[in-house]
Design brief:
The protein has helices at 3-16, 31-46, 50-54, 80-92, 166-179, and strands at 57-66, 76-79, 100-111, 114-125, 128-141, 144-159, 162-165. The protein is α+β, with helices and mostly antiparallel strands. The chain has one domain (27-179): Nuclear Transport Factor 2, Chain: A (Roll). Strands 1, 2, 3, 4, 5, 6 and 7 form a seven-stranded mixed beta sheet that branches. Strand 3 and strand 4 (114-125) form a beta hairpin. The longest helix is centred in the first third of the chain and has 16 residues, at 31-46. The chain is globular.
Amino acid sequence: MRPLALRTCALLTLLAVPLTGMPRAWADDGSDIVKLVQDSQRAGIERHEFDGYITIWAADAKLVYSRAETASVYDTIWSRAQLEATVRTKCRAERPKDVKLTYENVRTEVAGDRAVLRCRTTKRAAEGTSIADEVFQLRRTDAGWKVFENRFWLIEWRDGDRGHDRRQMDEADRSCLAKS
């Protein structure tokens, strides 16, 4: 075979690899990470499938309920063990029939073995609606991408006539700080 034909054959083989479902480590656009995280969230929150939810969480993962993307005195941090125990308990309850998650402003940044997924998550259910901004930090492991931190903060929640938006929550924070 001539050298040009060999190079052409090799190039076509390399180009065909992504089409066969083999890993594309050199061209990670983040779409696999988005699917992984959203599928996990839907498994746990919409369908109460514990295994489908917990598998993406690293052993040293933490869930941070915050007021903003940056750390603050208001952060509540759960370890993987606390997250696992809470989700396991929730998943034992009857599966919700009307819970629906949607995602907006989804953005990913992939740099080597680290990735960041940012999104706005809306959870709608009969009891109300919550909207939160989230940042998922992931690292690539031998077992695939794993979340090592999920920071989220409420933008708005509504439960019938009751509810708060970000402005009201910020005012409440300022009021509490003024009293302390």
